[in-house]
Design a protein that fits this description.
With 158 residues, this protein is an all-alpha fold. The protein is built from 8 helices and no strands. Helix 1 crosses helix 3. It comes from Vibrio scophthalmi LMG 19158.
């Protein structure tokens, strides 16, 4: 349910270029009227705050990335959440330069921040979009990811 709220907010406010200066109380009321539960709304808003905080910390962190090819080793908890298809898709996104090492780690952090046992490839694609949208300098990667997400009906992806 939390993923549904995040997708609703992303499509309503961010993707549609709607007014972003929304009062949190008004937003909660709107989500309640849309049929979402208070506890899920609270969790989704905290998740978004954590995403914003993660982006802020990335601006100040000096992550050293070497030119060497490296392999991401997933923890047991990450593998429980991200099946082989999801992990393969993350690797694909890095190979086509949609994700950098830093944005990949932000995506994984936000996936692990979801309170769900039911996580699928489509959910991953939305999380990638949300992260790329929130990190300045990733406009081209965001556009490419958006094209990948919306072109799956034409058979380009999975």
């Amino acid at each position: 349910m939390m993923m549904d709220i995040l997708m609703y907010l992303f499509e309503t406010y961010i993707h549609s270029d709607a007014e972003l200066q929304v009062n949190q109380d008004e937003l909660e009321d709107e989500l309640l009227r849309a049929g979402f539960e208070q506890s899920d709304i609270y969790k989704a808003l905290i998740w978004l705050e954590d995403l914003a905080a993660l982006q802020q910390s990335e601006e100040h962190a000096a992550i050293s990335v070497s030119g060497a090819v490296s392999t991401r080793i997933y923890t047991a908890q990450e593998m429980d959440r991200l099946d082989v298809e999801c992990r393969g898709f993350l690797m694909f996104l890095e190979q086509v330069n949609v994700l950098t090492t830093e944005t990949r780690e932000m995506v994984i952090d936000r996936i692990m921040g979801l309170e769900t046992d039911d996580f699928e490839l489509d959910d991953l694609k939305w999380i990638v979009l949300m992260v790329l949208f929130n990190v300045p300098g990733n406009e081209n990667a965001y556009t490419l990811m958006e094209e990948l997400l919306y072109s799956k009906e034409q058979g380009i992806l999975h």
